[in-house]
Task: structure prediction
Amino acid sequence: MRPRRRNKSSKRPQSKRPRPKRRLKPTPRRASRPKKSKRATTAKPEVRSDRKPGSALEREVQRLRRAQSRLERRLTAAVQEIGMLRQFEMRAQALESELARRDAEIAELRREREERSRKAGNPLGGASIASTPS
Result:
């Protein structure tokens, strides 16, 4: 995004404008070419419009090239996003498998606790009764 240009009519104090420390020398101007007569300029042979620089064909080619570069940038961004999504998907699958292992381990530990409580003869199966506050 381009920065906004200042309005030329803005009220800016003259004292804050930077002044050159030394006087600038005028730059030499190029010698101008002698002007051609109107006959010399109108006698130019007409060139076909599809051969002229800046013709509609060249503008169309430039427009298509810009569109192609925009599409290539979008494609690159999409491929990068797909790569990131694949990484996230792999990480999610790893976390899900780890969670499933932990759930299985918790279920196994609960079964072992219930078996021990049955062998000990505890009818509650190791569960405690919550006391009511008085």
Remarks:
- The two ends are 70 Å apart (CA to CA).
- Residues 50 and 57 are 6 Å apart (CA to CA).
